[in-house]
Design brief:
Length: about 140
């Protein structure tokens, strides 16, 4: 769940779809179907973040894919992310974080590696592997990256 105070919306990622609510009335504004959506019971579940425009970015914990849902039109863009140098790895992304400069960082669904994602060219580079065990699959809010 993510709150967008500037636009008065609450974004909720569920098992089957994404829902957007009006923060004042709690009424459903839109139900969004993500094409090809699936989830698995890995250590880290899919994640949802909001960018500066209020649009949602959603990870997939089965395959390295990100969706972007436009805050105004609710149009969905799906991006399969190429894993640079690790194309054969069978991983998805759990926790994601957005840095102040717009960079996206993603923790794999098994919690074992950290990636920097360039959604503009749909690729990700490995930053660190075999991370120490984490209590929760979260990434901090990033100021600059």
């Amino acid at each position: 769940t993510q709150s967008d105070g500037a636009r008065g919306r609450i974004w909720v990622l569920g098992v089957e779809h994404l829902r957007v609510y009006d923060a004042v009335s709690n009424k459903l504004v839109r139900r969004v179907i993500l094409p090809g959506w699936s989830i698995a019971r890995y250590k880290c579940p899919p994640d949802l973040i909001l960018d500066a425009s209020g649009s949602a970015i959603i990870s997939n914990n089965v395959v390295p894919t990100l969706w972007r849902v436009d805050a105004r039109s609710f149009a969905v863009t799906e991006r399969a992310i190429a894993l640079e140098g690790k194309e054969g790895w069978d991983i998805g992304f759990g926790a994601i974080a957005l840095a102040g400069n717009g960079s996206i960082y993603a923790l794999t669904s098994n919690g074992m590696s950290l990636w920097k994602v360039d959604s503009g060219v749909a690729s990700a580079s490995l930053l660190k592997t075999y991370l120490p065990p984490a209590q929760a699959c979260t990434l901090p809010k990033l100021a600059r990256g």
